[in-house]
Design goal:
The chain is α/β, with parallel strands linked by helices and 440 residues long. The chain contains 13 helices and 24 strands. A 4-stranded mixed β-sheet has the order 22-23-1-24. Bound molecules: shikimate-3-phosphate. Shikimate-3-phosphate (S3P) binds next to helix 5. Shikimate-3-phosphate is lined by residues 23, 95, 166-168, 171, 192-193, 317-318, 341.
Length: 440
């Protein structure tokens, strides 16, 4: 296990780009694999999650070629994947697992999916249920990986009303519906990230989206072949959120992150930052490959606390770890609630954050589905501890950022997990001026 520590840093400055968006990268690789024709992708995420997914799609008969700039995927048609005797190893990726379960519903063979220790503990029940309704045979113990799934040439359409807000579950059902004869309807009470819908429309799927009062209604008719399209992916907003937050809490800092995906369903965190008095500015915001892409500048700020409700939390679910760190540096109290899903992420994030912040001597109160964080204000964070990351990349990066503005260093027990989403995080932070080093 590679332990790293971060220490107080004078200032962070520079113009950078972060890896391509992981959610879009995973979706386009899968959709490109089952489209007709060749999909050319620019800006694919360099994360381990994406690398594992590529290996799995190759095992299922898809030809994927990667150069430094372009990735090309030769599609085999919706039900055209071929079976493999090998296990599909998903590493740490809950997203790739769920999306692949969706697509495997349409394949007339049996596949075995497994993951690393952390992924194998994550509960898949909320997805297994609708996929079984659609006709997939799914065998597993306690709704955990390893899972054996057997799909068919044709799935059954379903009517699905969201219980918990989850873009992964929505997307997996949409993928499973691609080979069904008839209309599948998904109702979202809280709208989640919409990259799947955008891509499906772009590739020619028969998908319609309407709003009824507060609800989003998605209707999709299956058995329509998808047509390959080229795409350019913007930087991962969740990665940008972590790097940018470091500038907010360190003195005399200014970081510009260029070409970040600014999809409306993802920018909630930036809106929250503005309400926290953060000095941030979005510029150059343009549409590219059907998504908004823009630059964002973060400057040192005096943050104030804020309270976040369920809907906001669902729309910045991956930013809750870094939000909690910023809340500690804010003046006044902050809180979030309605984050039940946080318990089923790469770690139980409510627990990991509670433990880590408490060890850093921040006053935190644990709630059933959230935390209340008593802000210490700038320059008052003690730190001086070792954080258990539970192999969760976002917990690891968030606490490294915290150490950059704490009185005493913060050590993280394992930095290896960071490559799950952001392999060059430490190098990039050091180039900006961050005092991060490996512990010998
Ligand atoms: C993702 C959706 C989110 C997020 C995850 C990626 C996706 O999960 O936490 O990191 O790509 O669909 P939900 O399924 O909770 O929305």
């Amino acid at each position: 296990m590679n332990q790293f520590c971060s220490k107080i840093s004078n200032s962070l400055n520079g113009n950078i780009e972060v890896p391509g968006d992981k959610s879009i990268s995973q979706r386009i690789l899968i959709l490109g694999s089952i489209a007709i024709g060749t999909t050319k992708i620019k800006g694919l995420s360099s994360s381990d999650d994406v690398k594992n997914l590529i290996k799995n799609l190759k095992l299922l008969g898809v030809k994927i070629k990667k150069s430094k700039i372009l990735t090309s995927v030769s599609g085999v048609g919706i039900g055209g994947l071929i079976s493999t005797k090998k296990k599909l190893y998903m590493g740490n990726s809950g997203t790739a697992t769920r999306l692949m379960l969706g697509i495997l519903c349409n394949q007339n063979f049996e596949a075995k999916i497994t993951g690393d220790k952390s992924l194998n503990k994550r509960n898949m029940y909320e997805l297994i249920k609708p996929l079984r309704q659609m006709g997939a045979q799914i065998n597993c113990k306690n709704n955990n990986l390893p899972i054996i799934i057997r799909g068919y040439n044709e799935t059954m359409p379903i009517f699905y009303e969201q219980k918990i807000p989850s873009a992964q579950i929505k997307s997996a059902i949409l993928f499973a519906s691609l080979n069904s004869q008839g209309l599948t309807t998904i109702i979202e009470k809280i709208a989640t990230r919409n990259h799947t819908e955008i891509l499906l429309k772009k590739l020619g799927a028969e998908i319609k989206i309407n709003k009824f009062k507060e609800k989003k209604i998605i209707k999709i008719t299956g058995q329509k072949e998808l047509k390959a399209r080229s795409i350019s992916i913007g930087g991962d907003l969740s990665a940008a959120a972590i790097v940018g937050s470091a500038a907010l809490i360190t003195p005399k800092s200014q970081i510009k992150i260029k070409k970040v995906n600014m999809n409306k369903t993802r920018i909630t965190f930036f809106n929250v930052l503005k309400k926290m008095n953060a000095n941030i500015k979005i510029s150059n915001n343009k549409k590219k490959s059907s998504e908004q892409i823009g630059d964002i500048t973060f400057k040192s700020s005096n943050l104030k606390g804020i309270h976040l409700g369920k809907k906001i939390v669902a729309n910045m679910i991956d930013e809750i770890p870094i939000f909690s760190i910023l809340a500690a540096f804010a003046s006044g109290n902050s809180s979030f609630c309605g984050g039940e899903e946080l318990k089923n992420k790469e770690s139980n994030r409510i627990k990991s954050l509670y433990e880590g912040l408490t060890l850093c001597k921040i006053k935190v109160i644990k709630k059933l589905d959230g935390l209340q964080i008593i802000g210490n204000g700038k320059n008052n964070i003690i730190g001086g501890t070792k954080i258990k990351t539970y192999y969760d990349h976002r917990i690891a990066m968030a606490f490294l950022v915290m150490g950059l503005a704490s009185k005493k260093k913060i050590i993280i027990d394992n930095a290896d997990c960071i490559k799950t989403s952001f392999p060059n995080f430490i190098t990039l932070m050091r180039n900006l001026g961050a005092n991060i080093s490996k512990r010998k």
